[in-house]
Structure formats: C-alpha cells, structure tokens
Specification:
- The chain is 32% helix and 24% strand.
- It is α/β, with parallel strands linked by helices and 232 residues long.
- The strands form 2 sheets. A 6-stranded mixed sheet has the order 6-7-8-9-10-11.
- The N and C termini lie far apart (36 Å).
Length: 232
Amino acid sequence: MQIRQFKYATDNFGYLMWSDRTCMAVDPGAVTPMLEFAESCGLDLALVTNTHHHPDHTPGNKEILKKTGAQFLDCKRFSDGHQIALGREPVTVILTPGHTMDSVCFAASDFLVTGDTLFNGTVGNCFSGDLDAFFYSLKKLMAYPEQTRIYAGHDYVQEAMAYARIIEKDNPDIDAFLASYSRDPVVSTLADEFKVNPYIRFNTDAVKKLLKDRGLARETELERFKSIMEVY
C-alpha cells in the first residue's frame, strides 16, 4: 500500500492511498493537487472518504466526487474492522470515537491515517466530551507495531513539542524528535510517539511521577490519561 500526503489550508492534511492503481482519497481538501498527482501516476481514484465530518476535513468532497465519479464512503456508516479493498490490499477501518463520535482511522500495511485522533506529538481535543471513549480509541492505535507510521490530520508538531516541554520539561527525546521533523511529509512512528507524546505516555515512570507530584489520579491507565487530558 502506498500513500501520499497533501497539505491544504493552513495546516490540514489529506491523503491518497493506493494499491495496484486503485486509489482512495481521505479528507480531500487539496482537490487539484490530488487529481493532478493521480493522473500523473495513472491512478484510478475510485473512493472518497473522511476521518470525521468536521468542515475542515470535508471541503473537497463535492468537487472531487463531481470531477471523478468516485464512490463516497460515509465515515459515519463504517463498522469497526471494516475492510476496504484497494487493489489486492485491504485498508482496515478503526472506529475511534473521542475527538468526535464519528472519528475513524485507517490502517494499511505499515501506516495509520489518524485524522484528528492522534497527531504527531499530541492528540486531538476531546470535543465529544467522552474521555473514556477517547482513551480506548487511542489504546487501539497504540497496539499497532511501534514502527507503524502515523499520518495525521494536521501539522501541529512544533506547537505540540512546545507543550510537551511544559508537561515533561526534562524529556530528552523532544530535541531529537524536532530535529527529525520534516514538512514533506509530516510523519512519525508509534515508537516516536511513545517517546515524546505526553498523552500516550501515561504508562511511563516519568508521567506517573509527574501525576504523583501534582496529586492527580494515577492508579489506572484510564485515570492517568484523564488526569493528563483534564489538566494539560
């Protein structure tokens, strides 16, 4: 499975995913660059979908569907574990409520498209208000192999690392993460995230000590996650 990242607006990302020339667009805000790339590579853009229905992730839907005649897959209608066939390779849908209740992620051969659930260096705001759901969604993503690449919905890397320094000022891995930061594409691995992303580091001794020093709930994974989300 192959993937190409397309930036649009200020910091949004959309993606083309393809195998055997059959292609799916995810959050297709960059309509013209996506179509030009697909044409130059001889790709059949057959499917269009979204990671969730926030308007900054759906602005290109109508235009790209009109120009291609592709089939629209409504993320609100997916079931967890649903398989989308792209050529000979499947894309697996992961239901990840939390940022919104209709949030989904897409898992392919060695990467995840995570929308606004998991960013490079941080996580999304819990606009749904359901921190329990958000926690279990992140746990699904955290279970993937550590070398899995993370393709997110926005480029928040610099802001995320500035905030990570506030939370874990002595974290020695932040400098290396920033040194490896590239804008083309913006991507990290789960291994990177376990080193620097404070919102999924709730099982580390450093975060446990941080919560203990602040007198915050920390007995279970869920309590530690909620403490970090609610305070930071």
